[in-house]
């Protein structure tokens, strides 16, 4: 009988070391981990094997043919990048609980009710049944009791499937729910900062009626900035604690660099533009005059402005997005996987960032 890895669910194999599920020897031991998950558990080594989105489609179509309760997990810090059309469309007609994870990254003063309102508005045009909206933090354990109550009420003797993009914290959330509501720690799933850790479905018996939690692979969001960086750099951009917002008053022909990843150039300031930056504390924000932009791009990327590092920068091309805000309502410019800038006031902005990464504009999520 084929054996599966206890960590990522891949079928174990001894032939191809660079492929999923590789293990030097398949022993009689019940709890086997592939080499990659074994390393993740024991040495925090982070080799990068990612399930392709083609595999994702196959697995998710199979999942959705089942009559389960779906938990759609999104990253609150990267909502637009993780509430993707691919997943939302696939959930059509399903019973869904929306879980927005990583709440701990938001400033403590953030009003939860307002964020839930904001999330409900985002769900107005979807074609699945929203049975609940929860804001949680898997790492800090915030609001997990409330989520578990909703799961118990909505489940109706069904299995519970966890779906979402890679890196939204699916495995972390399941681990926390297991720890809190089911004592068996050996069921814990490998988590890492590598997108796409979970390569196949993992069934974790959880409920007394023999129903289970089922973890599914994450859809890789190609537009997420971390796909353009090496592990050392993306550890820098992923915030590991509460974000400390930094506000700037802006005048015309000022610009702001966020590391060497983003440069927002204020080409026209019509009235009182202020911006608040929400990024990892490890990123340096540098304000300078617009006329210096070409010089900064030529001389300082990889040195004064990092990430990218010197070794990454040769593979990166920059592109420009233009925005114009009328100042009637505060807006966020969101950089998928990196963070966001809340803008109030009216003006025109030219945003330089990595080609192939997603930049979205939305009504401000905080401080409206
Ligand atoms: P998955 O790919 O969706 O299963 O995501 P993982 O559970 O492997 O988590 C991806 C990354 O996000 C890891 O670095 C986690 O530590 C981090 N993470 C997960 N949940 C949270 C959370 O609630 N808050 C914060 N700040 N980070 C989280």
- Summarize the amount of helix as a percent range: 10-25%
The biggest sheet, with number of strands, parallel, antiparallel or mixed sense and barrel status, is: 8 strands, antiparallel
What structural class do helix, strand and pairing data support?
alpha/beta
**Portion in beta strands:** 25-35%
The number of helical elements comes to: 10
Small molecules in complex:
guanosine-5'-diphosphate
| Inertia-based shape | globular
Distance between the termini: 57 Å
Would you identify the regions where 5 or more consecutive residues have pLDDT less than 50? Answer: 43-50
> What order do the helices and strands follow?
HHEHHEHEHEHEEHEEEEHHEEEE
**Rg on CA atoms, Å:** 22 Å
Task: Count the beta strands.
Answer: 14
Mean pLDDT: 87
Top keywords for this entry?
six-stranded mixed sheet, binds guanosine-5'-diphosphate, 23% helix, alpha/beta, eight-stranded antiparallel sheet, 10 helices, single chain, 368 residues
């Amino acid at each position: 009988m084929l054996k599966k890895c206890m960590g990522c669910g891949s079928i174990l194999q001894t032939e191809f070391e660079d492929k999923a599920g590789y293990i030097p020897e398949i022993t009689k031991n019940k709890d086997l981990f592939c080499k990659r998950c074994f390393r993740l558990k024991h040495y925090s080594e982070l080799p990068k094997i990612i399930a392709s989105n083609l595999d994702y489609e196959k697995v998710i179509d199979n999942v959705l043919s089942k009559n389960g309760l779906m938990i759609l997990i999104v990253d609150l810090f990267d909502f637009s990048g993780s509430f993707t059309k691919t997943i939302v469309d696939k959930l059509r007609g399903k019973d869904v609980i929306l879980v927005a994870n990583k709440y701990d990254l938001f400033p403590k003063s953030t009003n939860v009710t307002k964020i839930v309102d904001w999330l409900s508005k985002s769900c107005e045009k979807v074609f699945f049944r929203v049975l609940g909206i929860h804001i949680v933090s898997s790492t800090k354990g915030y609001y997990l009791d409330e989520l578990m109550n909703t799961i118990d009420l909505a489940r109706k003797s069904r299995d519970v499937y966890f779906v979402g993009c890679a890196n939204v914290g699916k495995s972390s959330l399941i681990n926390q729910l297991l720890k809190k509501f089911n004592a068996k720690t050996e069921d814990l799933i490998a988590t890492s900062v590598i997108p796409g850790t979970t390569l196949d479905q993992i069934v974790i018996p959880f409920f007394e009626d023999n129903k289970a939690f089922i973890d599914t692979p994450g859809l890789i969001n190609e537009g997420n900035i971390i796909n353009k960086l090496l592990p050392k750099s993306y550890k820098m951009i992923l915030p590991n604690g509460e974000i400390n917002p930094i506000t700037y008053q802006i005048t015309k022909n000022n610009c702001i660099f966020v590391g060497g990843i983003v440069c927002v150039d204020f080409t026209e300031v019509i009235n009182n533009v202020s911006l608040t930056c929400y990024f990892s504390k490890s990123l340096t924000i540098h304000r300078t005059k617009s006329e210096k932009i070409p010089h900064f791009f030529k001389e300082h990327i990889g040195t004064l402005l990092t990430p990218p590092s010197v070794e990454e920068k040769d593979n990166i091309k920059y592109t420009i997005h233009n925005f114009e805000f009328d100042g009637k309502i505060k807006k966020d410019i969101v950089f998928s996987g990196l963070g966001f800038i809340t803008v109030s006031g009216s003006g025109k902005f030219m945003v330089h960032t990595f080609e192939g990464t997603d930049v979205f504009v939305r009504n401000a999520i905080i401080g409206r």
